[in-house]
Each structure stands twice: as C-alpha cells, then as structure tokens.
C-alpha cells in the first residue's frame, strides 16, 4: 500500500503540470480553433518570470566593511539586498517567498504576452489550415526559446522553494499508515493543491460568470453569438490571454521542482498535446482528467516491479503514447471529446 500511495502522489504531481498546460491548450483550441504549438513556450516564459523576479529581489548594495578583512587582506565586501534595506524583515521574507510573489509579477506579464501573441500573429491564421497554424506557432516557439537562451544562458537556473516548504512530510502517517512509510516532498503537494485551485477557478469562471457563459456559447456556436451583437472576438482574445496566464502560472510554481531552462517548454509541449488528444480536443474536463490519469499511469509504469515484469524494459517514457494510440484507434474523439471532432 505504501508503494501504491507513493506512485499515486507522484502521478498527481506530474498530472498537475500536464492538466494545467493541457487546460490552457484546450481553452485556445476550443475558443479559437487554433492548434498552438507555441503553448509550451508560455510555460517556459512563466518559469523565467520567477527567475526574473527573484533576480530583481536579490539585487544587492555592495559596501566595504570598516572592521572585517577578506583572506587577501582587503576590506570585506558586504552585500545586502535592497529589499532588505528598504523593508527590513519583511524584505527578507519577500526574498524567501519569491516564488509566491512571482505569481503577482507573472499574471500581467503572461496576460500581455498572450494578447500580443494572439493579436499580432495568431489572429491571421484563424481560417488557415491546421498545418499552417502548427508551422507558424512552432516557429514562434523556437524564436522565443532562443530569445530566452540568449538572455538567460543555456544552463538551468535553480529556484529555491520557501524555507517553510523545504523538506518532506510523512503522508503515510497522516492517512493512518505506519510512520515513515510514505515520505513526500512538501512543495510537490503544494503544487498539486495550487493546480486544484487554479483548475477549480477556471471552471467556476466559465460556468458562473456572464463572460464565461458567453465564451462557452461562442465555443458551441460562434456565428449565432456574433449575430446577437456580442463582440466575441474580443472575448476570445481575452481567453487567449487567460490561457497564457494559466500556463504561465503552471511554470512559475514548477520552478522549485524543475530548474528553469530554455528547452523546458518543448519538453512538456508534446506530452501535453497527447494529453489533450486523449482527453478530447476542445473538452476542458477531458484535458484535466486525462492529465491526471496519464500522470498516474506514467508514475506506475516507472515502478521497478513493472520493469521486472517486462523483462527489464522500461515503458514509463512511452506509456502516454501507447495510451494515445489505443484511444485514437478505438475512440478518435478522445475520452470526453464532442462527437464528430477528430472523427471522419
């Protein structure tokens, strides 16, 4: 039972990232009908929002000590972040919790990036074939990736979790199992809870707000909504920005788990497109469900017992694609996709 619980937790951890990115992808495809291969770049930009904000908070004033000397006999340099000089203990707390503060920084940045991307490029390809959309957005992703590489370098940049969330927690003891049976990193649990809050917020927004209801109606029948005098294009642009924010926040909170690097967007992109296909193109519920389902399957596939059963072969890197092949052969529209989508 302890091994099963551990793999479920690992699966929920991976599935949280898959679900958040796939949710953003589905919001864009469901509203605009655009296959956005630059979506992984939004995840990467969100992660580097954390890097940028942390660098801003860590900007230091350098002074020379009057009493202390370095090993070379020169006055010792004293470096104090300006945030601590200005705000004292609160400034030190801001630096420690920079990942959480980065959320406030990332939201307007990702919203702006999404709107500029949609208005400046994507809108010109609404009525073009999906092949054209894939080519142009994939090219955009490569450009953004190279920009990040040139600015931040090619090496990963570690981002620490807040000190209060460093370490592990005895999850097994919390659910009535033996002590020390299942020890799990605290930040990964925080990420799972964060993903749940964001996903719940998006579904509540679409279901219970007037704006969300109009968007859902536009997803079902865009022409009719337009005939009612509603400027659905502006609302869809806002949805592109919202999808960018969701994906960017997924990247922000993932930085203590995976150090930001310039190719992390591409690493997640293909996997999350597979998640969207399995869940059903255009189905928000399907994207979230498939994200968690495939994350758990991938986690169980990595167990040593599974590898031994398969005579030493490891399938944790291909299990998602195997499931996708089975789904496409038996149910082309996906687990929760609308009838007729992706079907001939």
TrEMBL record:
Keyword Transmembrane helix among record annotations: yes
GO cellular component: a single term:
plasma membrane
Q: Cite the entry's keywords alphabetically.
A: Amino-acid transport, Cell membrane, Membrane, Transmembrane, Transmembrane helix, Transport
Q: What is its main location?
A: membrane
Output one GO BP term: amino acid transport
The answer to whether the entry has keyword Ribosomal protein is no
Molecular function terms in GO for this entry? transmembrane transporter activity
Compartments (UniProt record): Cell inner membrane
Superkingdom of origin: Bacteria
InterPro entries annotated for this entry? Answer: ABC_transp_permease, BCAA_transport_permease
Q: How does it sit in the membrane?
A: Multi-pass membrane protein
The residues that cross the membrane are 15-35, 42-59, 99-122, 189-209, 236-256, 268-297, 309-329
Q: Which family does it belong to?
A: Belongs to the binding-protein-dependent transport system permease family. LivHM subfamily.
Protein name listed in UniProt = Branched-chain amino acid ABC transporter permease
Lineage of producing organism:
Bacteria, Pseudomonadati, Pseudomonadota, Gammaproteobacteria, Pseudomonadales
């Amino acid at each position: 039972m302890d091994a099963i619980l551990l793999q479920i937790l690992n699966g929920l951890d991976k599935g949280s990232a898959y679900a958040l990115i796939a949710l953003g992808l589905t919001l864009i495809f469901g509203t605009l009908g655009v296959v956005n291969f630059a979506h992984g770049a939004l995840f990467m930009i969100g992660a580097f929002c954390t890097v940028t904000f942390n660098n801003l908070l860590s900007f230091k004033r350098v002074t020379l000590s009057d009493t202390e000397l370095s090993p070379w006999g020169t006055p010792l340099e004293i470096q104090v972040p300006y945030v601590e000089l200005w705000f004292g203990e609160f400034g030190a707390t801001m630096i420690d919790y920079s990942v959480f503060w980065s959320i406030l920084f990332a939201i307007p940045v990702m919203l702006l990036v999404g709107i500029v991307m949609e208005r400046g490029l994507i809108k010109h390809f609404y009525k073009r074939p999906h092949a054209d959309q894939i080519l142009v957005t994939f090219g955009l992703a490569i450009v953004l990736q190279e920009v990040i590489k040139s600015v931040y370098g090619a090496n990963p940049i570690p981002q620490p979790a807040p000190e209060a969330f460093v370490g592990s927690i005895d999850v097994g003891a919390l659910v009535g199992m033996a002590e020390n049976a299942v020890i799990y990193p605290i930040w990964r649990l925080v990420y799972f809870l964060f993903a749940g809050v964001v996903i719940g917020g998006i579904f509540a927004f679409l279901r219970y707000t007037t704006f969300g209801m109009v968007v859902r109606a536009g997803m079902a029948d865009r022409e009719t909504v337009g005939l009612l005098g509603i400027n659905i294009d502006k609302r869809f642009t806002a949805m592109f920005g919202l999808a960018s924010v969701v994906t960017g926040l997924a990247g922000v909170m993932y930085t203590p788990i995976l150090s930001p690097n310039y190719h992390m967007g591409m690493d997640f992109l293909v996997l999350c497109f597979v998640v969207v296909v399995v869940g059903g193109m255009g189905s928000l519920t399907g994207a979230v469900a498939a994200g968690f389902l495939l994350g758990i399957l991938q986690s169980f596939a990595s167990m040593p017992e599974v590898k031994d059963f398969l005579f030493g072969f490891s399938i944790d890197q291909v299990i998602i694609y195997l499931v996708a092949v089975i789904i496409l052969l038996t149910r082309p529209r996906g687990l929760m996709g609308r009838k007729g989508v992706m079907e001939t």
